[in-house]
Amino acid sequence: MANPYGVLFRTPGSRAFTAAGFVARMPLSMAGIGIIAMVSQMRGDYGLAGAVSATFTLSMALCGPRISRAVDRRGQSRVLPPVAGLSVMALGALLLCARYDAPAWTLFGCAAVAGAMPNMAAMVRARWTHALKGSDRLHTAYSLESVVDELTFVVGPALSVALCTALFPEAGPLVAGVLLVLGVLMFVPQKRTEPPVARPADGRPHTGSAIRSGALRLLALTLVAGGAIVGTVDVVSVSFAEQQGSPAGAGIVLSVYAAGSAVAGLVFGTLRLRTPLPRLLVLGTAGTALTTLPCCSSGTSSRCPPPSSSRDSSSRLP
User: Fold this and answer.
1) In the chain, at which residue ranges do the beta strands (DSSP E only) sit?
2) Mean pLDDT score of the chain, rounded to an integer?
3) Residue 161: helix, strand or coil by DSSP?
């Protein structure tokens, strides 16, 4: 039986845009936790660090659909360079504000603008969709994309936290900005695989919002719940690792967390399941929720001192 992933990469130009897309999407996994590590080290406040990182993430959630819509109307090569440039400049301003002890509100302002970061994973998926339109290999391509996403969250957080703790606090977000610039500059010139500008059949511009669809709203709420889990894991992992005297250990925890999902994605891409996609979504969501509960219970119990501990000894517990 032929390797479905080997067959997939016989598509002309696929290796080049996949490699460039991997570099360009790395900042997504590095920037958020890098901001947490940077602000927590420089300001000593995990609440502020989490709030600034949340502002960055919320901005990405709000700006992402609008950036992607602009790409559909004007093309990747016209939209991605200026948007990525704006995001990198704001990220640089955030680093300077953190370094020179600027007021907290400046951190939030810079993080909000930096969140205008293009979703490079979506740009790569658009190229796969264009290259494999009508082919059954598109299922394998989407599975591969989910694995590549997870791979960035295996490498990115560990790299970002390690840079912030081993070099200087701003190192993680700084490298994220550099990778975004390099990735976009590698990705955009590949005109052969760039999807054409979307034009309606009647020639009129699209009106309304896709979020009006009930099914899409339900899917969005499901993803919000999943994102809440991922975001909580980021903040809690960094804080807990710091309390244990091993700040770099947070990257390892997050990497292991993402590795399990990556393996599942690889296996899924090789299967030809007959189960309807809605049912698969329900099963996957339920599995994620159930496997999260043991982590919550163990995290709660770890904060409770043993009943026999004295006041002095319990004060030394993490």
Assistant:
1) none
2) 78
3) helix
- For 14-30, write each residue's pLDDT tens digit: 888 888 888 988 888 88
CB 57 within 8 A of CB 231: yes
Q: 84, 82, 104, 80: which is closest to 92 by C-alpha?
A: 84
Q: Residue written as tokens 């560990």?
A: 158
Give the torsion sign (CA, 72, 78, 79, 80).
positive
Residue type at position 185: L
Q: Which two tokens stand for residue 313?
A: 């000894």
Contacts of 33 (CB under 8 A, 6+ apart): 53, 156, 157, 160, 161, 172, 234, 238, 250, 251, 254
Distance CA 253, CA 244 (A): 13
The pTM is what?
Answer: 0.71
Q: How far apart are the first and last CA of the chain?
A: 53
DSSP-based three-state secondary structure for 205: coil
